[in-house]
From TrEMBL:
GO terms for cellular component: extracellular region. The keyword Transferase applies. One of its GO terms (molecular function) is peptidoglycan L,D-transpeptidase activity. Pathway: Cell wall biogenesis; peptidoglycan biosynthesis. It comes from Desulfitobacterium metallireducens DSM 15288. Gene3D superfamilies: L,D-transpeptidase catalytic domain-like. This is L,D-TPase catalytic domain-containing protein.
């Protein structure tokens, strides 16, 4: 089975789920504010939590860079903007779908 990976495009505020060379899902996201930017680079999913509480919405996918993750939101109007402290925000129903399709160790590539 082809390996899955998450590719985040900060410039277009899109998250793509790839399986091999094929995009199998695409979601709108919010990224970090200018003073707390989302870091570029190659990371991996390091942890997964259901209902992490607070502003993190219904799911948390922690990245291998400490204090950063892909998560839901209690503020859906922020999706499509630069609003976070560096994390990747998604609509709760989107992060729930993504959560089901990736595991710990899934590569996460964050592009400019």
């Amino acid at each position: 089975m082809p390996q899955r990976q998450i590719v985040i495009h900060r410039s277009s505020r899109q998250l793509e789920l790839h399986e091999g060379n094929k995009v199998i899902a695409r979601y709108p996201i919010a990224i970090g504010k200018s003073n707390t930017p989302t870091p570029t680079g190659t990371y991996s999913v390091a942890s997964k939590y259901i209902n992490p509480g607070g502003v993190f919405g219904s799911r948390w996918l922690g990245l291998s860079i400490p204090h950063y993750g892909i998560h839901g939101t209690s503020n859906p109007a922020s999706i499509g903007t630069s609003a976070s402290k560096g994390c990747i925000r998604m609509h709760n129903n989107h992060v729930e779908a993504l959560y089901q399709q990736v595991g710990v160790g899934t590569p996460v590539i964050i592009k400019p």
